């Protein structure tokens, strides 16, 4: 029997975390891991106490503007930022950690990851940057020594398929399982 790697394991969890996102444009999940122990998770969306993005909380995300435009007007916090802030808020060290994220972090999240002492970034999906941003990004990675690992496998495509159907970790050959079948969900 083939076992998935630790990287694939934690990346699957990052995809599950992304299901909590309340952003109407894109769902991103992040997991911070130290010594194979999850210390923090985060997903993108509006800050605590602010109406959710899908409830109109972020005017920029709810506009019909093009992707990447007016980013300074977006009030949503990124998944990586959320995971780093959550770790700090609850006293969990990020020094020497690995962050697993569904998408390649933006330049801002890369800077925050480096500053938080994260030494490795594992991601699945690319993000399109302008040539000048990509040059700065690559220089920052090289200068800081942070390790970037892009994991692209059939597994990830399969997990996205499962996530899009809201049937977590259920292989397609098993089929759809009703939540009503679970004894904990039955009326007493």
Automatic annotation (TrEMBL):
<keyword id="KW-0545">Nucleotide biosynthesis</keyword>
<feature type="binding site">
    <location>
        <position position="106"/>
    </location>
    <ligand>
        <name>Zn(2+)</name>
    </ligand>
</feature>
<dbReference type="InterPro" id="IPR002125">
    <property type="entry name" value="CMP_dCMP_dom"/>
</dbReference>
<feature type="domain" description="CMP/dCMP-type deaminase">
    <location>
        <begin position="5"/>
        <end position="147"/>
    </location>
</feature>
<dbReference type="GO" id="GO:0006220">
    <property type="term" value="P:pyrimidine nucleotide metabolic process"/>
</dbReference>
<keyword id="KW-0479">Metal-binding</keyword>
<feature type="active site" description="Proton donor">
    <location>
        <position position="80"/>
    </location>
</feature>
<feature type="binding site">
    <location>
        <position position="78"/>
    </location>
    <ligand>
        <name>Zn(2+)</name>
    </ligand>
</feature>
<protein>
    <recommendedName>
        <fullName>dCMP deaminase</fullName>
        <ecNumber>3.5.4.12</ecNumber>
    </recommendedName>
</protein>
<feature type="binding site">
    <location>
        <position position="109"/>
    </location>
    <ligand>
        <name>Zn(2+)</name>
    </ligand>
</feature>
<dbReference type="GO" id="GO:0009165">
    <property type="term" value="P:nucleotide biosynthetic process"/>
</dbReference>
<dbReference type="GO" id="GO:0008270">
    <property type="term" value="F:zinc ion binding"/>
</dbReference>
<dbReference type="InterPro" id="IPR016193">
    <property type="entry name" value="Cytidine_deaminase-like"/>
</dbReference>
<dbReference type="Pfam" id="PF00383">
    <property type="entry name" value="dCMP_cyt_deam_1"/>
</dbReference>
<dbReference type="InterPro" id="IPR035105">
    <property type="entry name" value="Deoxycytidylate_deaminase_dom"/>
</dbReference>
<keyword id="KW-0378">Hydrolase</keyword>
<dbReference type="InterPro" id="IPR015517">
    <property type="entry name" value="dCMP_deaminase-rel"/>
</dbReference>
<keyword id="KW-0862">Zinc</keyword>
<dbReference type="GO" id="GO:0004132">
    <property type="term" value="F:dCMP deaminase activity"/>
</dbReference>
<dbReference type="InterPro" id="IPR016473">
    <property type="entry name" value="dCMP_deaminase"/>
</dbReference>
<dbReference type="GO" id="GO:0005737">
    <property type="term" value="C:cytoplasm"/>
</dbReference>
């Amino acid at each position: 029997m083939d076992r998935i790697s630790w990287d694939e394991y934690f990346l699957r969890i990052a995809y599950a975390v992304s299901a909590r996102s309340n952003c109407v444009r894109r769902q991103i999940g992040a997991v911070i891991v130290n010594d194979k122990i999850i210390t923090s998770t985060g997903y993108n969306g509006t800050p605590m106490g602010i109406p959710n993005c899908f409830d109109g909380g972020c005017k920029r995300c709810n506009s019909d503007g093009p992707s990447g435009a007016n980013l300074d007007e977006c009030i949503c916090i990124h998944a990586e930022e959320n995971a780093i802030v959550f770790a700090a808020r609850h006293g969990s060290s990020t020094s020497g950690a690995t962050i697993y994220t569904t998408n390649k972090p933006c330049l801002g999240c890369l800077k925050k990851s480096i500053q938080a002492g994260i030494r490795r970034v594992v991601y699945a999906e690319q993000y399109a940057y302008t040539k000048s941003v990509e040059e700065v990004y690559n220089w920052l990675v090289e200068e800081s020594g942070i390790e970037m690992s892009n994991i692209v496998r059939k597994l990830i495509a399969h997990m996205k398929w499962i996530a899009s159907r809201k049937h977590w970790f259920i292989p397609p050959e098993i089929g759809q399982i009703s939540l009503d079948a679970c004894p904990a969900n039955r009326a007493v």
